[in-house]
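Lecture 7 notes: from sequence to structure.

We start with a single chain of 410 residues. Read the sequence below before looking at the structure.
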Amino acid sequence: MPQDIYELSYTAANPTVNGIGHALIRDFHSWLKGNSGTAPQNLNPFLAGYIKDVYSWTSSQPARTLNDFLHLGFNEDLSGNRVFDGMVNWIGAGAGISMNYRWSHTVGTERNRQQHLWVESFFPFADVTTNDPISGTTDGRYAKCTATNSCPLMNFEQYSANEYWVKTASLLHTDPTGSYDLPDHPLSRRYYMSGLQHGGGNQNSRNNTGLCMYYNNPIDAEYTERALWVALDQYISGNIPPPASQVPTLSGGTLVSPLSLKFPNGYMTTVNGVNNGNPFPVLYTGLETTRYRFDMGPSFYQTWVPTINPPVITPPFENNPANGPIYPSYVPQANADGNDVPAFRCRKSRCRSPPMRAGTTARPCRRTTGRTAASRPARISRSSRPCRRARRPAIRGPRSPSAIPPTRPI
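Now the structure, written as tokens:
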């Protein structure tokens, strides 16, 4: 079928050694700081002691790479020193890249409608230490670096709606049983950019719909990213407290099962001139990635060598205990307009992830992209608020790139 997706598996040989990339990241940045590495320091372009702190900014797959980098203890260099002093991870959330097993994949990514069998996220999902009710183990992303005093001094996790629907981001701040909210780790904060697509948008997102039924969300995350970068340096260099975490919560009723989402379904009336003034369909599929602990062989989780690969799947794929134990995950609650509740309220549009594909079948656009968000024209009512007057406090930061002060030399 033209809009269907097929996944093929085949017998292969000679798996590559993928985890060596973590050591490369560690040794290069440590060498720049003059701490360790095999290359001679006389080749270092920076004088010894010139670089005091190293900050990282990563997006998507590199952000998930650094999630595993921290968990596996690579932020401690060969001399026992800290490698990255601060991090801003954009759209990585609670997922990893999981290079540390045979036949792992480094160039693709799992989504809620494709590449289901590219196993990339294992317990632990959160920075703080939790207990895994499935395996009975206890771990946290910061456990190893805490033991060696090599954790980043601060790590800002910033992510979009895509990460809740596609990468089970709620597991970053709920326990593995999905029963309660987790506290912040003292060295990390979390910020949800409500309704944004993976990577954010810009005003050009309004120019065409591509494969989708609606225009993409035009909200640009770069201003907040820059503000967080400044806040990171202010905290590390000046001990100025970082902005408090802003995420949906179970306790506040803003983090819910897709089955409990109050997203409108049926038909909505548009403004004149849009769809010729006729009502248009609003469809909601509620399809969220299911985070399984797959059976990849009796000793896989001890040796990281799969003897069942790919894992055996019983239809339907989603939320089926026959495919393995499930870690419950949640999504942000929506209001009657279809906007996320713990969020900015968009003016003149409904900003929501995910969008729908164009055409008479009106399939979800996620079926092919898996990472976009929709912006739907809507009537303006008294209850609608411009984004600049969002009821929920924004992360404080400079308003435009020209007004942003430079960070200190590092």
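The CA atoms of residues 64 and 304 lie 19 Å apart. Keep this in mind for problem set 3.
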